[in-house]
Write a structure and sequence with these properties.
With 145 residues, the chain is an alpha/beta fold. It is built from four helices and five strands, in the order ααββαββαβ. The chain has a five-stranded parallel β-sheet with strand order 3-2-1-4-5. α3 links the parallel β2 and β3. The two termini are 20 Å apart. The mean pLDDT is 90.
Length: 145
């Protein structure tokens, strides 16, 4: 089960990107398929990637965190990657960046089915590589752990 309370912590969002995130954004912008007119960023977090996507396309940032969505500059939708609130084949490109590695196995499989369901043409999934885990530690707002 995804812990929505955790992801709604204000302290998690709006920070400067990690170096690997800067590279992921550059890579995504470099490989975006020409002619893509609609993009769903599923699990967009605070929109570091979403907000940088080309404005010539319809771009929607979707996340389970209302706090994260406050940072999205354009169209946004509250929703889970395991139950995406859009119709079949709604987006030419559906992406999930640094999301699926956080999911339990049963949720992971649901997420993959949902990404396939709402994508009409492309799916782009990224996962961290050489992430500096020590710099990403957070304390729980409720218990301090």
């Amino acid at each position: 089960m995804i812990n929505i309370e955790y992801y709604n912590q204000v302290a998690l969002w709006g920070k400067a990107p990690e170096p690997y995130q800067v590279q992921v954004l550059a890579d995504i912008l470099d490989i975006l398929p020409e002619g893509t007119t609609s993009i769903l960023d599923a699990g967009c977090g605070d929109g570091y990637i979403t907000n940088a996507l080309p404005h010539k396309s319809r771009v929607v940032g979707m996340d389970i965190s209302e706090e994260a969505l406050k940072h999205i500059n354009g169209e946004k939708k509250l929703g889970s990657i395991t139950d995406i609130p859009f119709a079949d084949k709604s987006f030419g490109l559906v992406m999930a960046n640094d999301v699926i590695e956080h999911l339990p196995e049963i949720e992971y499989e649901k997420a993959l089915r949902e990404l396939r369901r709402v994508a009409s043409r492309y799916i782009l999934i990224t996962v961290p590589h050489n992430e500096q885990l020590g710099s990403n530690k957070e304390k729980c707002a409720n218990c301090g752990t």
